[in-house]
User: Fold this.
Amino acid sequence: MTARSAPDRLLAVLAAFDHEHPALCLTDISRRAGLTLTTAHRLVAALTEWGALERDESGVYHVGLRLWEVAALAPRGLALRQIALPYLEDLYEATHENVQLAVRDGGEVVYIEWLSGRSAVGVHIRVGARWPLHATGVGLALLAHSDAEFQDEYCAGPLAPFTPYTVTDGGRLRRMLADVRRTGVAVSDRQITADALSVAAPVRGPAGTVVAAVSVVVPQTDAQVPVLIPAVRLAARGISRALGWRPAKETP
Assistant:
């Protein structure tokens, strides 16, 4: 077995933390990172000194603010969120439902902002959460505008089911993606939970490429999709313009 490099071991310590494990003792870090306790202790001490990890009074470690500060510099993270937030708030005011902003990372969507409706349907989403592309509105919008080779590879792969309504057939998924490109919106009907429907639209960057997607999630039983589509499109278009995108017919 090839020995793990120092950077690999350091990253393994950070990767031990996730949404299900936001607080870990040293023993848990060692186990989850696959490191000896001595190595884990040395790396955790270095990360804590730098500020990537913080240790509370009980000896449990958490992700530190220094790491959050560095992550805030990511152009697809907080920087995008800050530009998009006014338009997300407008979409929330228009619908009073859950509003989401997400980007693609490989075969998954990563949610970088979420505004929760006061009496909206419950969703399994939080900032930083990940879901497969085929099962969410934002994921369908992002997948439909990814390159053709990636789409073919994704549609040919196993498509995980979450409800009886989750699309798990590659041919059907390809047809759905074609509809997204034709209409400019994606509708995910009860694919993650059996009581929710989402309507999403792509967000474009200065070059016209799709860099994110925005969506609204509503109860499936009384979803008024024709009413939601213009509101979601308007939010996506506003964010795109704020990022520097202009329709081809417009001149700077």
About this structure: The mean pLDDT is 89.
